[in-house]
Design a protein that fits this description.
The chain is 35% helix and 36% strand. The protein has helices at 11-22, 26-29, 34-37, 40-46, 87-101, 116-124; strands at residues 2-5, 48-54, 57-66, 71-78, 106-112, 128-135, 138-146. The chain has a seven-stranded mixed β-sheet, with helices on both faces. This is N-acetyltransferase GCN5.
Length: 147
């Protein structure tokens, strides 16, 4: 495994991996989740993306945003052919390390309330549900972890 920070040239690969990883949720929620519709040409210049390669194949990524008092995990995507190998856990641990390095004592994330398996994973990693927010397209579950 190798991890590296993305550059603008990676926007297309980020878009493709994210669309593939999130496609399984479309039938559940009846629409494309937010990460499938993001403008990655823009996001890669404004946010940090760390790309995880397995045998030279882009297998997973994590997008983080430095906020005033915490690190926000905006997106975690694992290619379907690499799911179930602990790559999501590895990326979340990486984000926690980044948060520590930036001097933050808190990391936050949000996900769709209907993505139950993701919420369960985050709980196992020590995250708690802070609140649920009703939005026009569903319910967003906001979670955090003190570091």
């Amino acid at each position: 495994m190798e991890m590296r920070q993305a550059t603008a040239a990676d926007a297309g690969a980020i878009r493709e991996l994210t669309r593939t990883a999130y496609a399984k949720w479309v039938p559940l929620i009846g629409r494309e989740p937010k990460p499938m519709t993001a403008n990655y040409d823009e996001a890669v210049t404004r946010h940090r993306f760390d790309l995880l390669y397995v045998d030279e194949t882009l297998a997973a990524l994590i997008e983080t945003i430095r906020e005033a008092d915490h690190l926000l995990v905006e997106n975690v995507a694992v290619s379907p052919s690499f799911q179930g190998r602990g790559l999501g856990r590895k990326l979340m641990a990486h984000a926690e390390t980044l948060a520590h390095e930036l001097g933050f004592g808190m990391i936050r994330l949000y996900t769709n309330q209907r993505f139950v398996e993701n919420i369960e994973l985050y709980r196992r990693l020590g995250y708690q549900v802070d609140r649920e927010e009703v939005v026009p397209v569903g319910v967003v579950t906001h979670m955090s972890k003190r570091l």
